[in-house]
């Protein structure tokens, strides 16, 4: 979904939304809850019936490869419940019985990772129980210790509102093609709202920004420039749009 494509875009813009805040200098990649549960037809969380969601793991792999090549910190989240009665899922369990795919001892194996998207030694692995990757976890501390100031977010959720809104904050960039959702309409609506509030940038604008910053970022090991230049080559400038929670035409760091 590109900028200006929604019927309410002009209304939001006239109200003062959809501005840009810039982005930081030390990004990290956050991959949320990627596991077989979302791409297994027999799973209650299956999203593979949506063609865009079915294709999203390929974009995730490309982002992950680019991040590793650029030396970016990478964090993975994994849902896990150990209580036999699912009490550690809280009230969420009363509404969402498919959470049982992550219950300890479940024999379906739907919590297994996808090929090419498993964490490597040295990468951050966050165990969580709720939609947010930050609530009740050490992720904020892990990122602060690495001086991360921008998050590139991708992953899966049965409804993208949980993944996107519970994890997007100040300087966060959501890569639409690398996010899987059951329902295209809900997914696109959430991306539109992210554009209006945290923000959004297409890849062409993002690449112009990284080109300007490339020289200044050389000392950082090509943190952002290397990642997004690599991502552009594998995803395609015309088809890959980056939904950016704080993207803009210029860096927020001067």
From TrEMBL:
The keyword Transmembrane helix does not apply. One of its GO terms (molecular function) is hydrolase activity. The keyword S-adenosyl-L-methionine does not apply. It comes from the Eukaryota. InterPro entries: Hsk3-like (IPR013183), Isochorismatase-like_dom (IPR000868), Isochorismatase-like_hydrls (IPR050272), Isochorismatase-like_sf (IPR036380). It holds the Pfam family Isochorismatase. Residues 28-195 form the Isochorismatase-like domain. Keywords: Hydrolase. Belongs to the isochorismatase family. PANTHER family: ISOCHORISMATASE HYDROLASE, PEROXYUREIDOACRYLATE/UREIDOACRYLATE AMIDOHYDROLASE-RELATED. This is Isochorismatase-like domain-containing protein.
